[in-house]
Amino acid sequence: MAFRATSLLKAAASLGSRRSFKPVPIPKISLNKNATSKTMASATTATRQSPLDVQLTFLGTASAQPSSTRNHSSLALRLGSDVWLFDCGEGTQSRLQQSIVKMGRIEKIFITHTHGDHVFGLLPLLASILNGAGGAADGEDEPRAHIDVSNPVIEIYGPLGTRAYIRTGLKYTHTFFSTPYVVHELRLPWDPKHGDHTPLPCHSAESPNGRNIFQVDGVWENIFEDNVISVSAAPILHSVPCVGYVVNEAPIPGKIDPKKYIPELKRTNTHISAMSRLQKGESVELSDGTVLHGPPRRRGRKLVILGDTHNPAAIEPLALDADLLIHEATNAHLPNIDPGTKDDETYRSVEERTRSRGHSTPQMAGAFARRIRAKQLILNHFSARYPGNDDVDPMAKIYMDAIAGLAAREYGKEVICARDLMNVTIGVPES
Ligand SMILES: [Zn+2]
Ligand SMILES: [Zn+2]
């Protein structure tokens, strides 16, 4: 199935925060561009229309330390009008306000791991979305201490500790919400089978129906699934338990040519509503026995969003032939560009140090993208040494072009380095 990369992925080069918030399509991507794993669908899930508009907004692309040009990790995936967040580092809320993403449309938050640079922004964001605010220390006479939690507005997924982190943070900041949330944890084989990893009881806004989801054959398949989108996950190696997510779209209705069908419907006095069945790829039998077949469905899109990692091999079977891979590239060896490079430093020594901290170099990201036959690769989670204003600062552009080039040499294709507030549209496959 042939894919035209240029039409599949249109990246916006605009930094956005200080100028235009509109996604700016780049016609051609260029290096020089500026329970068990079975699902229970959420009560908040509406039926989605296919094909979806699928867009990503990078809200934070820094690693351990944010800088003036890069925020801590967060990524917004827009599916039609709904928004899913992947990680929620410090300052995510403020980046959301600068972006084209509507905070009130967030319905799910996927946490890759509980390092602070990926979760420190979660509690304030929840407080905003769920109408939260401080209450009295004992909570007596607090009407929000007695809300109906049967239909959570926000679903959060993350590894063991996600639930305890949220619950503890809310408890000791005396925070109450007027709308409920639920936390599902992706548990590793050695994690406890039961319990919440904290002696604290559920927060007053927390649904007690959060699932503990266990692996089957080393992965968490279909942790969420609705009529159009499903999400699977797998553990990826980092210095703490970490999860990579795979978002799969169900097959997309094929392009329908009305000229092919309408004369037949008219000829046999068939109601025009038959067109909607044909559009879904179904067959329709006409009054004279003729059978019309709708166009075959096209395959849906696959997005792979990794957290911090020095080895994501366990997600490979789920990630094969991804339309887009988001992979970290925390450190790079840039001897002729970075004046901070030590004389005795080599690529090998940089890779060794990077791996020992649970991270990747651009070359490692490029090699993984090639291995899974990803159609596009975007790098994120950069060291504070690598500036995020490469659209306006020529020196920053030299750094980021060099990093993209290192990954591209391993990958064999062009690579994009994400910057904060970059918008990316993932188009519908042509076949
Ligand atoms: Zn990190
Ligand atoms: Zn980390």
TrEMBL record:
Sorted UniProt keywords: Endonuclease, Hydrolase, Metal-binding, Nuclease, tRNA processing, Zinc
Instruction: Read off the InterPro entries from this record.
Output: RibonucZ/Hydroxyglut_hydro, RNase_Z/BN
Fetch the CDD domains from UniProt: RNaseZ_ZiPD-like_MBL-fold (cd07717)
Indicate the quaternary assembly: Homodimer.
Chain intervals for the UniProt region annotation (Disordered): 335-363
UniProt superkingdom: Eukaryota
Amino acid composition bias (Basic and acidic residues), ranges on this chain: 340-355
- The entry's protein name is Metallo-hydrolase oxidoreductase
Q: Which SUPFAM superfamilies match?
A: Metallo-hydrolase/oxidoreductase (SSF56281)
Q: Is Nuclease among this UniProt entry's keywords?
A: yes
In its UniProt entry, the species of origin is given as: Mycena venus
Gene Ontology annotations for the cellular component aspect, listed alphabetically:
nucleus
**Per its record, what are the GO molecular function terms?**
3'-tRNA processing endoribonuclease activity; metal ion binding
Cofactor dependency: Zn(2+)
Keyword Zinc annotated: yes
Coiled coil ranges: none
